[in-house]
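Aim 2, interim progress. The first record below pairs a target sequence with its structure tokens.
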Amino acid sequence: MLYKLFKKLSFLIIVLLVISCQDDYLVLAPKAKYKIGDDPSWAQKNFDDSTWANQRDNYNDRIFWVRMKVVLPEDPEPFKPQGVLVYAFGAYELYWDNVLIGTNGTPGKENNIDKIGEVDRSFIIPHHLAKKGEHSVAFRVSQKYHPDKDRGFGLVFSNYKNLIQAPLVLTSITYILAGAFFLTAIYFFILYFNNRKFFPVLLFSICSFLFFLLIIIEYVKFYLPIHYSDFYIRLEIIGVLTFLISFLIPVYFSIQFSLPKRKILVPLYFLFLILLYFLNRGHYDFTTKLLIVSMWIASAGIVGHAVFRKKSQAIVVLTTLLINVLLYNFLAYDMSLILSFTLLLLCMFYLLALQIREQRKSYEHSLLQTSRLKNELLKKKIQPHFLMNTLTSLIDWVEESPAKGVNFIEALAEEFNLLNQIEDKKLIPITQEIQLCKSFLNIMKYRKEIVYSWDEKNIDQTKKIPPAIIHTLVENGITHGLPNEHNEIRYRFSHESDSDSTKYILQTIASLRKPDKKIQDGTGNAYIKARLTESYDEKWHFTSQKTTNGWENTITIYH
């Protein structure tokens, strides 16, 4: 599945590269002349504009004219109408060699009508006017909105079919890419919602969704008319989305590669981006470039450190970052932005897929281990040695005290009944676990003829734990403990909880049979650890240690 996804996205990237490398366009930003007023003669091809201003002032909503000279390097091909794409602020009429070839809004009447016109507008140049050589371009303009903003006039020349079709083709391909990341975001969000233990899944989902929004907003201008008064809203949205992505991608890598001192470095990086964003707010493309460079430097630092520590797959991520540098330097800004983010997200997806696969293998191994250990414990309960000793004790009690013999049988039946109820469950109520422990102690009281007492403190009866883990610790206490002078072994079971963890403490108050023996994990402790891993992954801690009056076991489960 992963291979197929990489194959399809690689094809889209190749198509985008081919489109971005096309050189069928003549892009110009010619020197412009400005004059306030409104005289139709200013559209003439040979009009002398030498006295006009080289820079535009704030004309508010008054009409002004803009004139420029452009040179077409060759004649148009037959039957292929030429066109010009204009990037400009304001409502305007466009004159080509004194011929009106199109309008964008109604200059001088913007107060009286709804917002009409677009920031980017394409016009057909009549065939007889699109000849090789110098031409006069004149604009009759008014700029009611953002009159203090002089973004200049940009012109792109090509055949009219290219000007219309190429943006639509590019948009359709990039939107397929956006759709892929939108579905990816939904899938991984559901995956995280069903299992909230793995935070990188949520981070990847958020980054995929933000990238989906970035593509939508970046290319919305090609199919929805954006009036120049709303132009900066789109740029602000792009800036915010880029800011969020530039922050989250290094955070993702810092988690995946276990960056030291992450809790300090991540907030510092966030504050740096905030400072960078607000100091350069209003510069838009420049601010976006600064954010992307900052993201690249932060990611390269994190991944470079991971390579130095020989972290798995770090070299793959570092190679991707180096490829992004090439894209940034050799492709147009918009295209390099999309492709760079795409490669980074694919790299993040690759790391996540590998980690999920490893976790799945670990989980399946844990299930197998738990099942094996559970069977071993059940076999231990019915092994001949256990049955022989239990039946021998039962015969003695039946002969000496039939009533207590019946109680012994009932205790034994209750023990096996409880084990039968819980053996296939992942978690059981703590009250059922305590009942199992008490039942077992009741059996051992008849078998060993020792008094076993059980005390509880601060037990939250709403909690659940893996089955038979406390029961196993109780059994260990009987195996390795000796009664005191009153022929008694005592158990104290307590519960502590805070916002970060839940802790269960079982104290066995008894003398140790072999106090100098080295502590080793037997079947019982291995079973406990396997059960904890199955239910809580790595979010647990188990300790077992000697005390002055016996033994203490502590199980900590982190929230």
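The second target in this work package is listed in the same format:
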Amino acid sequence: MIPFRNPPSPSIRWSWRGVVLSLSLMLMLALAAPPGWSQPTDDAASADQSLDVLRKQITTIQKTLDGDADVPDAALSQMKADALAASAEADKLAASLAPDLASVKARLAELGTPAAGTKDAPDVAAQRSQLDKASSALDAQVKLARLLSVEATQASEQVSTVRRAQLQARLGERTASILAGSFWTQLHAELPQNLQRLQTLGKELSDAARQTPLPAWGGILAGMVLVIVASLWASRYLLVITATRVPHGRLRRSLHALAVILLALATPGLIAELLALGLRWNEHLSDKTDAFISSLVGIICFAGFTAGLGHALLSAKRASWRLLPLSDALALRMRRYPGVFAFVVVIVWATERITIVINAGLSTAVAVNCIVALLLGLTVAFGLLRAERCWRRVQAADPAAPVTPLWLRGVVLVLWLTLAASLISLLVGYVAFGSFVAKQIAWVIVVVCSTYLLTVLIDDICMLLASTPPPPDAEHPVLATPKARDQAAVLLSGIGRAITVLLALMLLLAPFGEGPGELFHRVGKLQDGLAIGEVAIRPAAVIQALLVLVLAYVGIGLFKRWLQNSYLPTTSLDAGMQVSFLTLFGYAGGVTAVALALSAAGIGLERIAWVASALSVGIGFGLQAVVQNFVSGLILLAERPVKVGDWVSLGGVEGDIRRINVRATEIQMGDRSTVIVPNSEFITKTVRNVTLASPLGLVQIKLPLPLSTDAEAARALILATFVDNPDILDTPAPSVQLDGIDSSYLTFNATGYASSPRLTYGIRSSLLFELLKRLRAADMPISKPSTMVLSTVPVTAAVAPELAPAPAPATPPVPPLTS
């Protein structure tokens, strides 16, 4: 509804005609506006204005780079950041305009094209003209935005090329050697002017300090004392917290190391910030001096971080909290080195920064760079010498001490060679190269140590997930099982450590023009995806597919657990059928989950038809047996000639079926060993299933008695023995027949039935003991036949019914043990 800018007076009375006219006008306006597209003129003008600003910014960067003037590295860094920001803004603008363009094109498609020889109605023609203009304007804006994004990216790459070229040129410059007398002569000539500029800087700082009121300095001093006291208290309290609140393990040590580093960073940083606050109290400092103070505070924080990192890794006073595998002697000998190294870092950076602030001469700047680089290199060399000497003493005192790894020896050798190259370069006159190498050595040491601590901390935190058992009285999803938790913990640990190493590489590459901003921008470009044929693989789609796959498998696992524990026990299905149903459901659910994940990734099932065609060739040659066993497993689960829990006999293998897998079936033998049988064996060969359809077990005993024996009395005694046995079924009833009359004895054949063939061996044994006892009491001796048959024949239906059950051997095999 269109709001009234001037509300009507209450005295005006509306007529029905006016109301209808107003509603008609509003309806016409609504129909005239293209549905789905509501870009106002102000938005188009704003987009044009933004594009003009981006074009001018990119053009300025390109002109500056094409010029012959030598652009400072700081300006190049800013240009690089501006180019990356312009590229991101252009991409954002193109993405915001794309939906409006699609909406306009959709409206034009709805209007269609007029038939030949006909004209549109005036309102339709006006609407078509308006939409054509809007489509052209939006299309031009989107294309221009994308073009500007490409030009900005090219400009940023050109800036990186110029920075690398300047770095190489600067590193290749040679000045007068500090060993030459001419160098010191020129330095002496510049000394008065440099001292005067240094005095000016000192006077500015002292004046700023004097202008700060004494109560303010008193408060700042009190704050510094409070920071120091709080730091001492926190260092003791953090140890107590990590020792009592953190679970036992390496996580306790890594968290304490992180706390030590943060405390070492915050304490000098807060003190330096308080001093800077005192100097800036009246805001009389120049911009250059204020920037120098801000940078000095930052380098003090970095020095505190470096010292804390060294102390946390060495842990000289608490060997049990040490993360690195160092001896106590080496840690004690190196305990003061992190503080010395941090102090040298502050001296090096502050000295170089002062020469820039006072605008010192060339000879002074070269001398300062050379001296501070030598100081930094000597500090690193001192640490290496001290550590090597201490390690040699430890090995000499303890022959059982571990030998230095070969890779560590190689690293130390590379460090010595690099330090030697830096020293030679500084003495010969390549001061820029020597200083750069010395600073890079120190920077690499700090980055590597920080990366080590972060990777250890990430791994410890992730392993905490694996070591936490679930509550025993709760129902948990599939991911709550210990195995799944361990896998998730290891996976998260690997991802976290990989990201940490990637960030470390970014920091190490920063001096060469590929800083974190550039690399993050390159990573951000990956959102456009990687096109392989007609399939575009985008990170967002891949993450979505993985999420769908995980959720689908979790849902399948939860549903299978519900079926297994809640629903299937209420049905009339036996245990084997329940297992078969769950297995088939798992296969179907897995295929469905993979199909949904592929769809979420933008890969339709119709697009992988060529993959299936290629696989069919491989299946026909190399995977035929695998596919045969897989299909046989599906047939076993569907037809169920054998099932889990059946007692089967196949090719000399006899035992219980414990599991029917995709490729093979596990059969547990009587000695508790497991035989893996391919599924195709159950389909292509004859299988004897002893327990199919819950069969009865037949207990058969043939006894030879002398010819003088009373046949009726013997028959009654044997039958009574079978009837009295509690494991012999009443139905079918046991029976005793006279099987034959030989020249010297009578043969009685006694049979009885048990509830399961698995019980027949034990029942037969107890019957024999009882028969011998009763025959001896009745004074009925047993003849000595050439053969005595004692058999247990299961009454069963086999997979091959044409085979009759063979008589059991005289010493029957031990039946499989049921679980």
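The chain has a mean pLDDT of 76. This observation will shape the mutagenesis plan for the next reporting period.
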